[in-house]
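BUG: 3D viewer hangs when loading the predicted structure for this chain

Environment: internal workstation, default settings.
Expected: structure renders.
Actual: progress bar stalls at 90%.

Input used:
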Amino acid sequence: MTIRRLLLGLVLFSTSLCAQTTFAPIGATWWYGGMDLVQSGQLFEWVPTTNRISSLDTISIQGRVCSHLELTYGNAPCTYMAHYIAENNDSVSFYSDTDSAFHLLYVLNSIPGDSWTSTVPVTAEFSDTLIWTVTDTSSVAVGGQILRVLLVDMDMGGWMQTGIITDRFGLHSFLFPWDYGMWGGCDMGFMSDLQCYRDDVIGGWPGGAMDCTPFTGMPADASAFVTVSPTACSISEPITIDLGLARGNETILRLLNMQGQLIEVRSIHGNRYSFTLDHAGVYVVQVLMDGSPTTHQRILVQ
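Structure tokens produced before the viewer hung:
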């Protein structure tokens, strides 16, 4: 038994060294299933939907660097969604506008038996709590990275569920495992079940390098036609965005630095657009079409 515990400890220690804990990097996207309550004649019926969460940039709140999340495709009016999350070592917290405070969401280096509590501000006068308890741990290899996996029990005032938390993905059912319907405030639609995740480090899950385009809400090959070139250039050298066959009512260029700070926003008209950068450095170019990110490209200016 002692040898078995020692070996288990070594495995967990090795896994924690290799695990990638960067949560919600710029360009990360989560695709979830869901259901919307839609009126058909005089009746209402539940219709399956797809929803996408995107990490657009970073912002500093109360001295903490936060990833900025938005729902960029779909409609889930009953879903509680925090727009800013911050990582500190192996803990992930979310910022609530309700009480202007950070609240613990995940503890990614937990082991079986560990427990933590998330406070959920519902209104200015009322907060709920969610108690997480880890029942088992494992790991999974995705895109050449070893990601930790936690099996958890979730207790919110007697409302019990089980779930899976994975590094980078978060809780598989949804990042924030509560909705307004729990408090009787909504019954029009919700998100459920992670269908696909992608970021620039691990590629796509499931399927390794898949790009998740079946879930983007546009033709599966549309984003493949959007190109940004060159990706390495000199100061004042033109950088060209070519939309190819991709089409939208509104196309936006977002320019960020490597810290995720938004530098400039420009509208793109036509299917080709060129611009220059006047300072050396590494930049991130994002192209959004009708609010949906289609391209995420790093540019080196020297």
